[in-house]
Amino acid sequence: MKRIFLSSPHMSGNEQKYIQEAFDLNWVAPLGNNVDQFEKDLATYNHMEGASVLTSGTAAIHIALRLLEVAEGDKVFCSSLTFIASANPILYQGADPVFIDSEPDTWNMSPQALERAFQDAESEGQLPKAVIIVNLYGQSAKIEELKEICDRYEVAIIEDAAESLGSEYKGKKSGTFGKFGIYSFNGNKIITTSGGGALVSNDIEALNKSRFLATQARDQAIHYQHSELGYNYRMSNIVAGIGRAQLKVLDDRVAKRRAIFDNYVEAFKDQPGFDFMPELEETKSNRWLTALTINPEAAGITNMDIIHSLGNENIEARPVWKPLHLQPLFEDAKYYSHEEGYSYSDELFKYGLCLPSGSNMTEEQQNRVIHTIKKLM
Ligand SMILES: *Cc1c(COP(=O)(O)O)cnc(C)c1O
């Protein structure tokens, strides 16, 4: 049986055209037309002033923290229920992460937990330098409520939209609500360049600074001169060519992933104990991954039972992300739960399940997943 992946690269067929163009012009490296054009296309798609394309989404978060002057001893608030890449750059800067729990309507950052974290930070006399808000599995966080709190304390938002490119919140594209938004084009994301990321913003000067920092912070001089610490983070012209072709099919990919989600919902609609990830009113999720919780008492099986039986059929499934406040790497970090003494992300981790959701899945493959789970019931 051919392996079914959680989310695998799905090429459109036009990627080679842009790569060939780079070869023909010998713009194989470092920069060139594909980079410039991919930055423009990304900005246009998201209705933003500009974009700076980079080697990864992690690099984009790192640059955003640098642009906000996050330094040693500073605090940064960050969603707890996310992939480790959201928070690693906080450590790169020698700053201290403070993790914020999820709430039930979006599985994303809880406004009431964020409020408590800010109240404590204020009374301790040290506000955070930035708040990293993650849009998990494509679903936007409660941006308006979270933004109101951050604006009141005058702290900048970095919207980690690595998983939510193409999603919408009240008619606006995901990743466009903070001072900075970041996207990822890693191999498992909704579109991929094989690896890559982007920073978007309406601050053109900051984006120019991003390009400067990402190319070793080279001063304007014919000799190599440097007055600031920089990185080698800029995307190559070959990789950007893949991105140009992928971005053209993004809306098709969103439609396909949403259809896969609907198919799973329909298949398990009469199944007690299966609760699919909600979609907040006035938002549209790209449904990057179909996520749900399995209540073992009602369902008679656990999420891990499902993961193991799918594994036996050569099908990849996973629990939801292990929250960062539970990670050994962050055992000393502060954490604010949704309610005092009640952590919602712990519950999502315990019962959560992600099903194969790639836009290149065939109907027969989806049926294989559904049938394997139904056999267990
Ligand atoms: C994938 C991902 C990232 C990091 O992107 P890379 O391009 O792999 O560095 C950051 N945050 C979240 C939530 C992600 O899922």
Automatic annotation (TrEMBL):
<dbReference type="InterPro" id="IPR015422">
    <property type="entry name" value="PyrdxlP-dep_Trfase_small"/>
</dbReference>
<dbReference type="Pfam" id="PF01041">
    <property type="entry name" value="DegT_DnrJ_EryC1"/>
</dbReference>
<keyword id="KW-0663">Pyridoxal phosphate</keyword>
<dbReference type="GO" id="GO:0008483">
    <property type="term" value="F:transaminase activity"/>
</dbReference>
<comment type="similarity">
    <text>Belongs to the DegT/DnrJ/EryC1 family.</text>
</comment>
<dbReference type="InterPro" id="IPR015421">
    <property type="entry name" value="PyrdxlP-dep_Trfase_major"/>
</dbReference>
<dbReference type="InterPro" id="IPR015424">
    <property type="entry name" value="PyrdxlP-dep_Trfase"/>
</dbReference>
<dbReference type="InterPro" id="IPR000653">
    <property type="entry name" value="DegT/StrS_aminotransferase"/>
</dbReference>
<protein>
    <submittedName>
        <fullName>Pyridoxal phosphate-dependent aminotransferase EpsN</fullName>
    </submittedName>
</protein>
<keyword id="KW-0808">Transferase</keyword>
<keyword id="KW-0032">Aminotransferase</keyword>
